[in-house]
Amino acid sequence: MSATITYLEGTEFQRSRAFSPAVVTEGGKTIWLAGQTTTTDESDKDISYDFEAQAHACFALMDKTLRRSGGSIANLVTMTVFINDSRLGDRFVKLRGEKFADGKYPASALITVSHFARPGIMLEIQGVAVV
After folding, report:
1. Quick one: CA dihedral 76, 60, 15, 80, positive or negative?
2. What is the C-alpha to C-alpha distance for residues 12 and 64, in angstroms, rounded to an integer?
3. Got the DSSP string for 65-110?
4. d(CA 124, CA 119)
5. How many structural domains compose the chain?
6. Could you read off the pLDDT tens digit of each residue along the chain, which spans 131 residues?
7. What CATH number is associated with residue 67?
8. CA distance 55 to 72
9. By three-state DSSP, how is residue 40 classified?
10. Which has fewest Cβ within 10 Å: 13, 75, 92, 98?
11. Is the distance from CB of 76 to CB of 99 less than 8 angstroms?
């Protein structure tokens, strides 16, 4: 059974922050993604303390994992994003908007934390997708 996914229309503020207030799914397969974080990119280059590179790499890791199950990041219905500096929130929102340029944004929470498991990590993204 294939999934039917409905993105509830957000307010102007919600659209400007690149998230949906709710996403309704029916049918399909639910994929629960572990938190994704990295200090190296796909070519094994060190990206410690490089927030933008880590964000791109985390989305790429999520997409790669979802493709193994027949989906992609376009199938994300919710994500929880952890950052270690609240000043990076607006930058993350811009990057997320670029990843979901069609305006079908996952529901999302953006949380500031004090530390991650290893030095150099600046964010972690956990998500749920429906295919």
Report:
1. positive
2. 31
3. HHHTTT--GGGEEEEEEEES-GGGHHHHHHHHHHHTTTS-PPEEEE
4. 13
5. 1
6. 688 989 988 899 998 999 889 999 999 999 999 999 999 999 999 999 999 999 999 999 999 999 999 999 999 999 999 999 999 999 999 999 999 989 999 999 999 999 999 999 999 999 999 99
7. 3.30.1330.40
8. 16
9. strand
10. 13
11. no
Instruction: Print the domain residue range for 10.
Output: 4-130
3-state secondary structure (DSSP) of residue 54: helix
| Residue 106 contacts residue 19 (beta carbons within 8 Å) | yes
Q: Would you call 70 exposed, middle or buried from its count of C-beta atoms within 10 A (0-12, 13-18, 19+)?
A: exposed
